[in-house]
Amino acid sequence: MSTVTPANVAAKFRSLGITVTVKAARLLCAQAAANNNAGLVDDIVEMLHKDPPSVKVVDEKAAAEWVSRVRRDPEAVRTRVLVVFSAKEFPKYTFNTARSCFEKVTAPLSMSGNANDKMTVMRERFFMVHQRVARSKLFLRDANDRPELSRIESLCGSTGSKVVLGVLSTTQNGYVLEDPNAFVPIDISSAKILDGMFTEGSIVLAEGYLEDGVFRATLLAQPPAESRTASLQALGGTADLFGGMPTPEITLLLNQYEEEHSDAQMFFFSEFQLDCPQVLERFDVVLKGYADMPPELIVLMGNFCSKPCGAASVQAAFGALGDTLRRYPKIVATTTFVFVPGPNDPCGNPWPSLPQPPLPRFMVQPLLDSLLDARVFFVTNPARIRYCNHEIVVFREDLSSKMRRSLLLPTATNQLTKHVQKELERARKSPYRKTAACRHHLQPITPVPTAAAGATAALVLRLRSAPLPAAALCRCRRLLCAVLRDA
Predict the structure, then answer these.
(1) What whole-number distance in Å separates Cα of residue 223 and Cα of residue 205?
(2) Please, which of 87, 247, 381, 423 could form a disulfide with 224 given CB 3.0 to 4.6 Å?
């Protein structure tokens, strides 16, 4: 846990236009150390941001009052129960390939990026997968029956079966398998293809042998997935890669809150087309059934129109939705509403890219006018939600269809060897879900077909899902599918 220093305390309060005396800063540092709570100052700053103080110079007395207020104020816990993030609020980390750790990015991200971004993203993604595969149970060196992970450059002169990790690419002469240091032609005509989706630029595990300068693959598989617990242990738990990580003190209170509200419910709707009368009619039936026991969260995902509509039509549709919700004041008062745009919604982005901006405020103003006291969030696509100590990713994009257009190999679902089956026994049967979970990324397509994937290389790190969240809800082929981690 990082140590709180008086200089850090002064800098955090300075962002609010508040000056902290030396004695007050030392008091806050002592309280944070005594309670083993490095986030105490952050909780106070967040409280003051919502309720600005009348004084601009803080002494010891005021600092002590704020500490007591944070400890006993239930609002400090209630505001952390359900936190919603847009893409611009995601923590920005890059993977240091030399140190095999995440480092925070301080420079702002541009939409277009530069010439080195695509190469950097490709190398970063490969090394992230490589260090995860290297510590997998499949390749433990103390087990006699486990295969050994080899580098492509070490295949020359080797004999016997080898397992290598590389990027699958195509050339005029066929397939090649490459990593940052070497490449080798690969023959997959006789390989057993395990479940998952293999496209241009896929990072794959290949088992086989070298013959006449060509790697004859006998098995081709996705890199094994890794649970969130194992990822955090390997990373040391020092980086908040998801965002909004609560302090240890708040974490205990959130666990208690979750136990007391074990019957909390969350609803997710996709293709919520407001211009179709049947949608609002059936949504009204749902709201009527839960009028006396409101859900904790309702997520509505686009497309919000079944066909291209003008701004006036969109405003009228959201106004009708607001009229429907106002009939249920108890739901409006207690439920959090999150709106995620679809690929065909008018979001004002100059080209179809990910992350996708939220719906413009002027289009949804009729809904906001109807729900003045409700918690309503119009977020980007994808978006992140933290409920207590659980992470949820919401992603409205049919990448499954896009990946199928770029498939190099047919998909299989039930051909698992004994080594891979134990590691992936909890993986779902959907090829996209399996591929996204194994690559720890919402966009499993690597930057080679960037136009097909719809994400610029400069912003692709915001689609990373490492460590795996508690759930990732994505729309794939008109269905909502979830990629779940180990509990």
Answers:
(1) 6
(2) 423
Q: Rounded to whole angstroms, how far apart are CA atoms 456 and 120?
A: 12
**Residue type at 346?**
P
pLDDT tens-digit readout, 231-254 = 777 776 556 677 777 766 677 778
Query: Is residue 260 pLDDT above 90, yes or no?
Result: no
Rounded CA gap, 410 and 161, in Å? 24
Number of H helices, E strands in the chain: 16, 20
pLDDT-above-90 percentage for the chain? 22
Q: What is the dihedral of CA 107, 110, 115, 119, to 10 degrees?
A: 70
SS (H, E, C) 348-405: CCCCCCECECCCCHHHHHHHHHHCCCCEEEECCECEEEEECCEEEEEECCCHHHHHHH
Q: Residue 135 burial (CB < 10 Å; 0-12/13-18/19+)?
A: middle
Which of 83, 37, 28, 68 has the alpha carbon at shortest distance from 250? 37
* Cα gap 388→194, rounded to integer Å: 36
Question: Any idea of the CA torsion for 362, 367, 370, 376, to the nearest 10 degrees?
Answer: -100
Give Cα 430 to chain centroid, integer Å: 19
Q: Which of 338, 103, 394 is nearest to 241 (CA)?
A: 103
Report DSSP letters for 134-151, one per residue. HTSGGG-TT-TTS--EE-
pLDDT of residue 437: 59
Q: pLDDT tens across 36-57, in order?
A: 666 777 777 777 766 677 777 8
